[in-house]
Amino acid sequence: MPRSLPAHGAVFAVLLSALPAGAQTALPGFELEHLEINPGRGTVVMRNGELRVPGGLSVGLVGQYQQLPLVLLNGERRLEAVRNRTSAILAGSYGVLPWLEVGAQVPVVLWQRGDDPGPLGVTPLASQGLGTPEVQARMGLLSRRDEHPLDLSLDLGVGLPVGSTAVLGRDRGLRVRALTAMGTQVGFLRPTLEAGVLLRSRNPLSAPGATGQALEVRLGAGVTTAGQGLRGELAVKAAFAGDMTQPAVEILGGGHFPLSDGLELHALAGPGLGRSPGTPIARVLLGVSFRQEPPPRMETLPEPVPQLRLEEFQTRPERTPDSRVEPVPTRELLPPEPAPTSPP
């Protein structure tokens, strides 16, 4: 790797200079991954404020490749701690109520490799391991189905502390996310916006022995094309925090191609900007998703209303009187009364 290549990772001279010579010290564990996969409606990386209908189900598998997500620098010394990283994320969501949807995702690092950190006194990272699984609840606030001008939702997610620290897949403390997403349709375009915060452990690379919680602000904007066939997508994601030397920004573009009813293939790729840990110089996403939703329910009336048709009256046979019933004499059937005679 050329020395002139910009270091899109971490510039932490304090960490490398603090390592004792000849000693093997493990790199402090933290969650390296910045990008979140969207298990619900929207695109792979962007929510659009919509919720699945009750009984609707979505399951997806996304594979991704990152180049140089973590680089450590100290003057002339350069350590590409993670040069290449390949991972897979299994995600799904389910519509519970018209205003509630639940989802989950499980990331797994399949393979990662970097420089040998032995000369700097750092223990090599593991090549495989579990990331931070997350469970979430999505609540609908506004919906275009109810004739609102846009879709608006609130996401609450909790990261489960079961990932592997040896693969940089787990924070040391609590990890909670709250995010608002909105979207609408303008012609053949569907713009979306995201804004939220992530409460996580402070990155230990920012300072040796850093403890406590950090609040990370996350923003996103994207646009997709509408239609039934091939659809394009462009998204920009950014993150800011007090323990980050620079904002983490990624630009991803790609498309979605339907394979069959409910089955879709998607591919995204783009660069990363900034030197924060977890910001690669390039990221590629390739995945497939399946969704199934029940048909809309028909409204039923409490009592059936008879529907009369004109044909029924035209084809109905005429009623004939029963011969066994004797007619009732009327005044017209009686013999005429004799006219009264006048007196002589």
What this model shows, in words?
This protein has 344 residues and is mainly beta. It has a domain at 35-64 and 83-110 and 127-289: Porin (Beta Barrel), CATH 2.40.160. It contains two helices and 15 strands. The strands form two sheets. The chain has a twelve-stranded antiparallel barrel with strand order 2-3-4-7-8-9-10-11-12-13-14-15. The protein has a two-stranded parallel ribbon with strand order 1-5. Residues 1-7 have low confidence and may be disordered.
Key words describing this protein structure:
single chain; 344 residues; disordered N terminus; elongated; two-stranded parallel sheet; Porin; twelve-stranded antiparallel beta barrel; 2 helices; mainly beta
Q: How do the helices and strands line up, and which of them pair or pack?
A:
Elements: H1 13-18, E1 25-26, E2 57-74, E3 77-97, E4 100-113, E5 122-123, E6 129-130, E7 134-142, E8 151-159, E9 176-183, E10 189-201, E11 213-225, E12 231-240, E13 248-260, E14 263-273, E15 282-292, H2 310-315
Parallel strand pairs: 1-5
Antiparallel strand pairs: 2-3, 2-15, 3-4, 4-6, 4-7, 7-8, 8-9, 9-10, 10-11, 11-12, 12-13, 13-14, 14-15
